[in-house]
């Protein structure tokens, strides 16, 4: 797939951040005291200054504490407009499956995807792989925050869909939830979705230990670049319809190279360190 395909297409509808609010015949500017009504349940309209403050505050907060999912979610919404979320929405509109997802608007929760059923699927199926990843990482599909700060109602769903599909990306790649794995996946997502938050999250590499940082830049970042540039738009995968599909077949269709198993790498390093300590202990005893 060309890097300049739908991912690089311009012409997304821009969001006018200074849209006036009409009251009767008069036109009054957007302000804190004159806020337009919400466009969907939970929507919080923001002006340019508020959105900028939210972006900066959530960026700093999520860097200090990468486990604050609410701050990461706010950062994603604050930086997705005026261009990037429209680009992702247009990528869905240009794809037959993406258009069906926008029409149907499915949600990914433990109610819509029953885990007992997923665990009963064939071992290498997409659904079984997803359920096994959730079990291994101790993650629930019900922990995703609802979108609040994106003004366009359809684009708000696009962001919600991306957010709820994130764990499927984890499952297909096998990357774990600790910081090193999240950074690798965020690098992949940035090149696949071009959502700024996924790129900004990479600054969290400063929190990695030296060995982890070296491993990230030598192994997982090159993988993310290769797969992120080569893969098709992940937002257009209708996960609910391919739960029984072989996950290796899906990776091949999407152009995703499976990265080295990060948990296995860390396990081997721990074993090696343990053997080295035992060797030194035995030498000292002699």
Overview of the molecule:
With 286 residues, this protein is mainly α. The protein has one domain. Helices cover 56% and strands 2% of the residues. The chain has helices spanning 48-64, 69-80, 84-93, 96-104, 115-119, 126-137, 153-173, 179-193, 196-200, 210-230, 247-254, 262-285, and strands at 21-23, 26-28. The protein has a two-stranded antiparallel ribbon with strand order 1-2. Helix 6 (126-137) crosses helix 7. The longest helix has 24 residues, at 262-285. It starts with 20 loop residues before the first strand and ends with a helix. Zn(2+) binds at residues 166-167, 170, 182. It catalyses: a 4-hydroxy-3-methoxy-5-(all-trans-polyprenyl)benzoate + H(+) = a 2-methoxy-6-(all-trans-polyprenyl)phenol + CO2. Its cofactor is Zn(2+). InterPro entries: Coq4, Coq4_euk. Lyase that catalyzes the C1-decarboxylation of 4-hydroxy-3-methoxy-5-(all-trans-polyprenyl)benzoic acid into 2-methoxy-6-(all-trans-polyprenyl)phenol during ubiquinone biosynthesis.
The tally of beta strands, per DSSP, is 2
> What is the number of helical segments per DSSP (H or I, 4+ residues)?
12
Q: State the order of secondary-structure elements, H for helix, E for strand.
A: EEHHHHHHHHHHHH
Strand content: under 5%
Form type: globular
Q: What level of helicity do the residues show?
A: 55-70%
Low-pLDDT runs: 1-27
- Average pLDDT across residues? 85
Biggest β-sheet, characterized? 2 strands, antiparallel
How are the strands of the largest sheet arranged? 1-2
How many domains, in number, for the residues? 1
Computed Rg? 21 Å
Report the end-to-end length measured between terminal Cα atoms: 62 Å
Q: Structural class of the secondary elements? A: mainly alpha
Membrane topology: Peripheral membrane protein
GO cellular component, one term: extrinsic component of mitochondrial inner membrane
Protein name: 4-hydroxy-3-methoxy-5-polyprenylbenzoate decarboxylase
Subunit structure: Component of a multi-subunit COQ enzyme complex, composed of at least COQ3, COQ4, COQ5, COQ6, COQ7 and COQ9.
């Amino acid at each position: 797939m060309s890097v300049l395909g739908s991912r690089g297409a311009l012409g997304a509808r821009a969001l006018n951040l200074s849209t006036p609010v009409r009251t009767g015949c008069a036109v009054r500017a957007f302000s804190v005291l004159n806020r337009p009504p919400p466009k969907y349940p939970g929507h919080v309209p923001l002006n340019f200054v508020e959105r900028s403050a939210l972006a900066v505050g959530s960026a700093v907060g999520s860097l200090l504490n990468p486990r604050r999912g609410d701050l990461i979610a706010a950062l994603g919404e604050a930086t997705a407009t005026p261009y990037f979320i429209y680009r992702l929405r247009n990528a869905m509109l240009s794809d037959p499956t993406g258009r069906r997802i926008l029409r149907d608007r499915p949600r990914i929760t433990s109610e819509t995807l029953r885990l007992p059923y997923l665990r009963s699927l064939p071992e290498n199926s997409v659904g079984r792989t997803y359920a096994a990843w959730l079990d291994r990482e101790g993650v629930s599909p019900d922990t995703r925050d609802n979108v609040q700060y994106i003004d366009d109602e359809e684009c708000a769903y696009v962001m919600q869909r991306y957010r709820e599909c994130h764990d499927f990306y984890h499952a297909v790649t096998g990357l774990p939830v600790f910081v090193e794995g999240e950074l690798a996946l965020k690098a992949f997502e940035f090149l696949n979705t071009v959502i700024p938050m996924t790129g900004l999250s990479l600054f969290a590499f400063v929190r990695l230990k030296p060995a982890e940082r070296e491993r990230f830049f030598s192994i997982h970042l090159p993988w993310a670049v290769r797969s992120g540039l080569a893969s098709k738009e992940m937002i257009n995968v209708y996960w609910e319809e391919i739960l029984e599909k072989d996950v290796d077949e899906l990776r091949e269709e999407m152009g995703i190279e499976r990265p080295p198993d990060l948990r296995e790498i860390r396990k081997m390093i721990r074993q090696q360190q343990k053997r080295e300590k035992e060797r030194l202990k035995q030498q000292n005893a002699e």
